[in-house]
Amino acid sequence: MKKRILSSILACSLLFTAVGTPGIAFADDFDNQIEQKNKEINELKSQQAGLQSQISELEGEVASINAEAEALFAKLQTLNEETEVLKQEIADLEVRIERREEAIRKQARDVQVNGNQANLIDAVLNADSLTDAIGRVQAMSTIVNANNDLVTQQKEDQQAVKDKKAENDQKMVEINESQVALEAQKGELVRSQADLAVAKADLAIQQSSKESEKADLADRKAKAEAERARIAEEERLIAEAAAEARRQEQAANSSNSNTNESTSNSTINNSGNTNTNTGNSNNNSNNNVEAPSTPETPVTPAPSVPETPSVPETPAPTPAPAPSGNSSAVIAEAYKHLGKPYVWGGKGPDVFDCSGFTSYVYRNATGREIGGWTVPQESAGTRISVGEAQAGDLYFWGSAGGTHHVAIALGGGQYIHAPSPGQSVSVSSVGAWAPSFAVRM
């Protein structure tokens, strides 16, 4: 009976061990889950590659726009040089015209006082011969005609120069309009690049999360497999203990059978003495002691699989508030970059375009982000007139929403800016090139 109880206990222990580890039955599912994570990670990598391709395409468009802008700026520089030449030619012509007009005025006074006819008569009368008289008349006529032709030519040249200057001014207007379009297109591309960069970063975060989940699954799988191996070993030990118990029970049953057979034979042989045999039989019955039972093997309860502790999310640090604007700090930062070359699209610290310069200066002097090109920078403060601008404010060239140049006011009608290709960061005045409006920063 005790052996049967022992066997039942061993069987129950085996059953409880199996039931006590519900997670082990799903250990094989970890491979499927890990494979699923791998697919998700590969999909995210594919999306990242697609976004990178778009970013590269946009960078190519930016490079193309850069080349177009450089060509426009080179043309603008050529026009500026031609304008300077034309201005000098006009100035020289005006001087010559003024001198010749003075001579013409003198000649006119002579004609008015003495009369052109009298001068002609004097020339003829004072001639030594007819040939000399004819020569003098022709000479005077040639001089007068030459003066008239010279004045006419000068006027024509002056008008031609003015026409060229007007044509040149029109070309500069067209170039400014092209610059406005390029600046707007650059802003659009910059925004697109920023959006794609954010999307790429988001995918990278998702990939990192999936990698972490995959690592967690792998760790849980390893623990589950270790637990399953432990349970298998425990089952083996329990099975061995049960087999040994059955063997000992069979041995005990065999010993009892032999003892009972011997007692029966003794009873038959001593049938004459009933009381004695009965007493012996009772004694034999009392002396039938079962074989000692094997002590029960203690069953170690299966420890439950420890849950992976969840990592508490670290709250994102609250960004420090940006320092307030400081005009002296802005001016000091701007002056640090005097002489650095202009490059369209340059954002510093070694090369700048106009909006890249103002953006870089404000970011480093005050911590403010005022935008990467001229149009968003128009909204960085309050629009004011050019005459109201103070040191640290911004000057803009062009109409609101379509500006093509920006500079930092220094006060006193001066400003510092990155002018154009071939030039460097420098100081200029509103008298030399007047801005369209200003923004109070």
SS-based class: mainly alpha
CATH architecture of the largest domain: Orthogonal Bundle
CATH class identity of the largest domain: Mainly Alpha
- Overall morphology: rod-shaped
Order of helices and strands: HHHHHHHHEEEEEE
* Poorly predicted runs of 5 or more residues: 271-312, 317-324
Annotation, overall tally of beta strands? 6
Count of folded domains? 2
What percent strand? 5-15%
Instruction: Give the terminus-to-terminus CA distance.
Output: 99 Å
Residue share in helix: 55-70%
- Using only CA atoms, what is the Rg? 54 Å
Number of helices: 8
pLDDT averaged residue by residue = 74
Main beta sheet strand tally, sense and closure: 6 strands, antiparallel
Task: Predict the CATH topology of the largest domain.
Answer: Helix Hairpins
Strand order of the largest sheet: 1-6-2-3-4-5
Biased composition (Low complexity): 250-297
Domain NlpC/P60: 324-441
Signal peptide: 1-27
Pfam families: CC_PcsB, NLPC_P60
